[in-house]
Structures are given as C-alpha cells and as structure tokens.
Amino acid sequence: MPRSLTWLFALGLLASFTQPVGNADIGFHLRIGRDILRSGHVPTADAYSFTARGTPYLDQEWGSQVLLHLIHEAGGAGGLSLFEGLSVAGTFLVLLGAMPGSLPLRLGILLLVTPLAAVHAMARPHVLGWLLIAALLRFQARGPAWRIPLLLALWANLHASFALGVVLAAFHFLERRQFAWLAASLLAPLLNPYGWHLYGFLLMLKDLPLGLLGEFRPYAMNGHAFWVWSAYAALLAAGLIASRPCRPLILLRAAALVALGYGGMRYGVVAALALAPLQAGLWAPRFRPHRLLPWLLAGFMLLGTGFRIRDAKAGRLGIDPDALPVAATRFLMESGVEGPLFNDYNFGGFLLWKAWPRFRVFVDGRMDVYRGAPLDDYLQALDARPGWEDVLARRGIRCVLLRTHRALVKALD
User: Fold this and answer.
1) How many helices (DSSP H) and strands (DSSP E) are in the chain?
2) Residue 206 has what DSSP assignment?
3) Averaged pLDDT of the chain
4) Coil vs helix vs strand at 178
5) I need a labelling partner for 149 at 20 to 30 A (CA). Which of 15, 47, 87, 295 fits?
6) Residue 161 class from Cβ within 10 Å (0-12 exposed, 13-18 middle, 19+ buried)?
C-alpha cells in the first residue's frame, strides 16, 4: 500500500496541475529566453517596450527563461503544460523524501499544502523555485553540506526565490554552528551574470507597488486558501507547544515563515513547503495512524483530483485562449493597425512574444523595468483618471488592447 499511495499521490498531482498555459508572463519569458540563446548574452537593458526602452534590466530568471524556451521548442505549448504538472509533482515527491515520520503523516501534511499550490501554480519560473525549496530541504535532511551552496548558485540563476533558500540555509547552518558553510551559502548566489547586483535587485523589490498584483496580496479571509493556510499554521503552533521547549532558532524560523505565508498569496505555498519537514518532525512522535487511514487518504486523493479536473482545466494541454489575447493579437498582426499601442498589463507578455517588434509594448509583467513614469502613466490612463487623454497623446497612442472591464475602455466609448 505505501508504494501505491505514493504513486497515486504523484499521478494525482500530475493530472491536477497539468493545465492550459494562461499566465500573463509566459510570453515575455519565452521571448527573452529565445533572445538569450540567439545573442549569447543576458539582457542588461530593456529592448522590448517603447516606454522604458534602455532602462537597466536585471534578468534574474534568465536560466528559467532559456529552459522554458527549449521546452516550448521541443514540445510546444503542451510541453509547457506538462512542465507545470511535472514541476509541482516533482516538488511534492522530493519533499516527501525530506520529511520524517510515517507515510500517512507525510502525505496528510502535503495534502494540506496542495490547495495553496493550486492558487499560484502556473508555467512560470517560480514553480522551479518550489522544486528547489524541496531539494534544499532534502539536502538538509541528509547528505553532504557542500551540495547546499552548489544548489543556491544554480537557484540564483533561475528565480529570485533563491533568497528564501539563503535564509533557510542560514538557519540550518546556524543551528549546527557550521559557519564556514553559512558563509559559502551567502556567497554562492554571487555566481550569476550580474554578480553582487543580484542582491541589490532584491532590495529594490521593496520599493515596487507589488500590491497592484493579486498574487502579492494577502489571502482573502472569505477564501478557502486563507483557512487552509490558517489550519496549517495552527497545526504547526500546536506541535510547537506540545514539543516544548523548542530551540529559539526553530521558533524564529517558524514565526518568520508563518508571517511570510500571511504576507501574500504567492508566499503561502512556499512557506508551507518550507515548514513541511518541521511540521512532520513535530507530530511524528505522537502520530499513530489507524489501519484505515491509507484508504481514507487514497479516497481523498481521488476525490480531490476528480474535483480539480472537473472544475478547472486540469489535464488539458496548450495555450488558454480565454486567458491570453490570442485572437486579438492575431487581428493586430493581420490588420493594418499601427502602434504605438496601449496594452493591458496582463497582455504585455503575450504581445511581446507574438507581436514584437512590430508592436512594442507599453507595459508587461516586468514591473521593475516600468517603475516610475511608465507605470504611473499606465495606471493613470488605465483607470481613466483626470489627464488620461494627455497621457495617450504624449505617448502617441494610436490603438489600445485592453480587457473590456477597464475604465479606459468605457472612457473611450
């Protein structure tokens, strides 16, 4: 039964998280990944927009973008869908091996994490970050210490979530008083094309209006993810109380990750993943599974997978035309319409992929490139605030491509 449960868990995750590609950023990741391979160097300034062209651009996801481009070249959009499903399934399987305790306990904890993953799972570099979190925790549980700095060096070229990896490594080595490996973990991320500027990029993120993006907002209290995360945090708190006294560093790490999870929807899943081995370790000495529990878990997995496939688009491959402006972009390219174009933030990535260089975007998902005047102009015009006509005139806008509910669409009517 244990091996069957593991396989059922893995196949359920693969079926649930293999879904059509509809995230707003996939287009610019594919475009930039292709350009990196063709040019042989990473970008240092924006070359894709007409509002921020020449602005310094530190592409901390360059390695993931190259990988996504290669996956698309080999398997098309269906390959990207499979990339998402395999990344999520791989994350949970690797983490399963990093957790102590019986298999039913470990699976039960990870099943609590899956609704949090569903909130932010998509074919983007951050799912590689999830997999690397799991790998780091696996390395911390067993194996030589040198693998951790090596992993962080790789991670720093794939996604900014390497910062969480550095923090987790720091706690790990501080608890063991292994200061040389701690120093190596802090220095390893410098092995990237931008050197120490990568740490400067992380500091710059705090100045961005990330709250404009739904994924950076806290869970809504009337949503299921808030209560799942709260139950997970309460279970952790109960385990810590039952295990008193706990070492101060363990308490500090747990408190920091719980606070992170409440800080934004995209952070809940990474905090839950990072806490999973601790959660299992706290409950393993007290957990006595009933002989029927594996069957209950199997039923829950089948039920959850069924609901996910029925209610979402899980199990399907390719581009989601309901989420991305596929038809509208085709019309732009086939018609005689000319730019400059004022586009929706959520359409910028797809346009950059399919319509550049004929249409340079006004804005896309690289918020760090557009901070300041470009983003201010975009928001003023998008919301049809006083002076929006002046923004469009000053930018020379000749056409717009927006979601129909935007205030500017109504103002233009």
Assistant:
1) 19, 2
2) G
3) 91
4) coil
5) 87
6) buried
CA distances from 144 to 91, 132, 148, 346 (A): 21, 17, 8, 43
- What is the chain's Cα-based Rg? 23
Buried b (16+ CB within 10 A) or exposed e, 56-81: ebbbbbbbbbbbbbebbeeeebbbbb
Contact 123, 320 (CB under 8 A): no
Locus of tokens 């279970």 = 235
State how far the alpha carbon of 220 is from the alpha carbons of 115, 227, 265, in Å.
Answer: 14, 9, 9
- CA–CA distance, 22 with 318 (Å, rounded to integer): 9
Distance of CA 179 to the CA centre of its chain: 30
Residue with tokens 């015009």: 381
pLDDT exceeds 70 at position 35 = yes
Local structure of 70: helix, strand or coil: helix
Buried b or exposed e, range 211-242, using 16+ CB within 10 angstroms: eebeebeebeeeeebbebbeebbebbeebbee
Task: Decide the pairing of beta strands 399-401 and 341-343.
Answer: parallel
Residue 18: closest CA among 82, 71, 66, 69: 82
**Residue that is written with structure tokens 């979190």 in the block:** 133
CA distance 59 to 45: 9
- As beta bridge partners, residue 342 has 400
CA 10 to chain centre: 20
pTM over 0.70: yes
Query: Of 318, 341, 317, which Cα lies nearest the Cα of 331?
Result: 341
Distance CA 182, CA 172 (A): 8
Strand partners, 361: 49
**pLDDT score of 367:** 92
Q: What is the pLDDT of residues 359-404, one digit of tens each?
A: 999 999 999 999 999 999 999 999 999 999 999 999 999 999 999 9
What is the torsional sign of CA 144, 146, 147, 149?
positive
Contact (CB, 8 A) for 58 and 194 = yes
pLDDT tens figures, 294-303: 667 777 676 6
Q: Lowest-confidence range among 11-25, 57-71, 203-217?
A: 203-217
